[in-house]
Amino acid sequence: MDDEKLKEEKAPAQETAEETVETAEDTGGNKDAVKSDKEEKQKKKDKKNKDSKDGGLLESLKAQIAEKDDKFLRLAAEYDNFRKRSAKEKSDIYSSSKADVINEILPILDNFERAAMNSEADFESYKKGIELIFNQFLGVLSKFGVESFGEEGETFDPAIHSAVMITEDPELGSNVIAQVFSKGYRIGDKIIREAVVKVANT
Hints:
202 residues; alpha+beta; 3-stranded antiparallel beta sheet; 3-stranded mixed beta sheet; 6 strands; elongated
């Protein structure tokens, strides 16, 4: 009798304990589900933030590239304008320089024309007129910095002289210019024309 009563008293306690275990298990399961849901939401949020940051970075890079492209196109246009302007200025300077030289030569041409038309001049007057014109022409060359070179007795220099003949002459030294066929001309260090000469004792 006592044993049966004891069993009856234990049964409700056991059921309560089992319910507690089940409740604990259910609660633990719900906690895991809640935790998993929170993690998933956080992941979505992180992904959204990352996508937003990546999108902002992409837009920023696009803006920077567009700005660089604009600067490059402006620079290319400015360089093209500079190149065209420089070419025009160079052409204008060249044309202006030619005009200046010709303007200096024209008075000489005028004097040649007058000399040619003066049929009444005697030989001495004509010769004197030609000499004056020649000196006038030399003056123009000097004004533009043109110098002549290539004289008999000078040492032959293949850099500025062109030897078209060679001769043996005991009276002259070695590698000496014996005769000048046409003088050379230069402006500073720039050779305009080499002197054409005959060289002795090469």
